Amino acid sequence: MITLALMIFAAQGVPGQNMFDYSDFRAGRFTPKNVHGIRSMADGEHYTVLDGNRIIKYSYKTGEMVSVVLDFNDLTDEAVEDYTFSPDETKVLITTEVVPIYRHSFTAVYYLCDLAGGTVVRLTDHPIRDASFLSQDGRRIGFVRDNDLYYCEVADDGEKVDIVRLTSDGEYNRIINGHTDWVYEEEFGFTKAFDISSDGRYLAYLRFDETEVPEFYISCFTEGLYPRPLSFKYPKAGEKNSVVTLHTIDLTDPTHTPQQIDTGPDTDQYIPHIGWDPEGRLYFYRLNRLQNRFELLLCRDGRTPGVIHTESDRRYVERPHENTVTFLSKDRFIVQSERSGYRHLYLHTIDRGVTDTLTRGNWEVLDLVSVTGDRVYYLSNEGSAIRNNLYSVKLNGKGKTRLTDEEGVWSISPSQGFRYFISRFSNVSTPLQVRLHDARGRVLRVLEDNAQLSETLRNRRVPRKEFFRITTERGTALNCYVIKPLDFDPAKKYPVMMTQYSGPGSQSVQDRWSMDWTDVLVQEGYIVMCVDGRGTGGRGADFRKVTYRNLGGPEAEDQISAAKYIATQPYVDPDRIGIYGWSYGGFMALNCILKGNDIFKMAIAVAPVTSWRYYDTIYTEIYNGLPEDNPHGYDNNSPVNFADRLKGRLLIIHGMADDNVHFQNAMAMTDALVRAGKDFDLMVYPDDNHGMYPTGRHHVREKMINYTLENL
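Below the sequence we write its predicted structure tokens.
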């Protein structure tokens, strides 16, 4: 029996005269304005932003403009995509002509601007990757080109550029120096795999040997008379990964001979982060292939690494990132850990281990924002799993203070020294707000209030989310939201479209402002519902890790339970319930219409995984283990194996150049449905990637709106 537990209604707006449709999304009428390129300057009293092609300096204290640091319009016609100050802030590295490769990687043309001398120089004749400063004065810049690591030295006059090649064995689909392979980029979220010591002498970098990694092929259909094949190394679950090694180069050595660092005897492992501690000592993370043992290693004597922290879990250790460990001094560091069952902050010393528990409770630390003096600043969901706030606490775990007061979702950009911070905030009734605060959280200035968007929302009859909880027949309480038409009449019966993602650690039910194509359905008389089932984030390790070795099992049960609950409501037509999802959500949409064929009458699955045997090693194996060790976990929830259960209407959508969830997934599902004699619909986007770029991102949403109107 499913029971309604807690209902929190957001106030509905006053109906206006104007409806909206997807053309408003195409025109950008629901796109919030933002403040781009915020950078704190070293003095902690000023910050810069990117305004078109200008870098503008502002005062934190007043929020007033101080000066134009650089007007790139005076130098070239190229559009500025990003910028970075040199450590001494005398130079600026400008990123232009960005050409995306995969999710995070790109090639670009970089310019170095000398703020004092007024000179600007293009670093190389050809596009390069990951350019970044290697010296305090900004004259030396490292980068990757054609899988090899280089640096360039700019002369004192800012004109002559000498380029030095540091590695020479780089080769496409075989060896990568200083840049990550596909699976590291996608799952660990970084591409620049090199870092310079604080004195600018030693360059540490990762080398990826992809030789034994299986190759995947994509056909590009729209570029010429014959399709062009694109191949790249993609390690699917259970297959061979790159062999990753760690090296250093002494830049004062004229030979630039790389020296390999001992990372242990196991080569089938991950090195997801490298860096230098405050003492200039090299450190790195080490993670075993099953990702249930995480180690922090430090080269205390300069070259020989030793383990200074270990964390293990019988299921898995949540994927580490740059801020998992934050060094404070020679022997102290902060670790984000789930040892209590919830992610919290712990103060460690190298020799004594944990010395203080900085945060505790049945809630999660979401991000460590800054450490300044004796205070740690962090975002947590202490008040509610669907919201967060900024807090600070002393390094002894005492004196906790909440610094933000509104309820919703925050992100924080701190000043150096945390005398000020800039926040981005929204909730279901408030589009993005960008504000300048002092260290105590008081708002000094509103940088962007999106007043025009707020007025548009009032005039365009945009309804708001209502948050509530249901308790399933298994006794699990789930966070949900529902969006009802503004003219909702409880005496009528409405069709329901459920939208979800459901992937491990994700959260779709959050008190943040957002709009998507499903909001158009609400205008057309549909109810939209979203449920975060077991496996999603914000509620501790046990809730999230219940899907371990069983991806798609508990999540599908919870979506089916939620659909059965909503079907019992007197204002719902139980014969018109559909479900939609993209990527992991597409995997779930397929499972739901097949395993829940008695309740779901329609499903839309975009870029779905249809078998975890087709997906990459890092993501799949952390949750499902190795295929040879857990075959049932791979097959029992693969929708390919349940194609004969299809009863309702089904639309599968996929980009044919999807490097992430390969088009192979859609073809496997198509083959299974055809063999089962099932009628369904398939929409493909030639040469589009996982996000339906560069062509179909609007077309796909209009297609889904029309398909829903016709079939649900």
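Confidence is low (pLDDT under 50) at residues 1-16.
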